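A student in our group prepared the protein record below, which I am reviewing. Thanks in advance; the entry in question is below.
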Amino acid sequence: MQLIHMQVYSKDSSAPRGVSVWVETRDPAQARQIATQALATEGWTLTQIDSNTETTADDYFRPCPSQQAFLRAQTAGVSWRFDDE
């Protein structure tokens, strides 16, 4: 699975927001494409990609919002969580 951190904005707000996106693929380029399309569907526009790394279940040692997003991505293929939530 790939974990991508990016900056996005919506037409409703001029301030960018940080978001972490989990994508069920090992291909970083494919992960960027899937993440960008999924967020665009919800009205978000990519401004910058900060990181794109591989992640596994072992990276989440206790229940937390990031672990929940990881588990959702295993089922749905993609999941995200905004930094300020």
User: Anything to note?
Assistant: Strands lie at 2-10, 13-23, 44-54, 78-82.
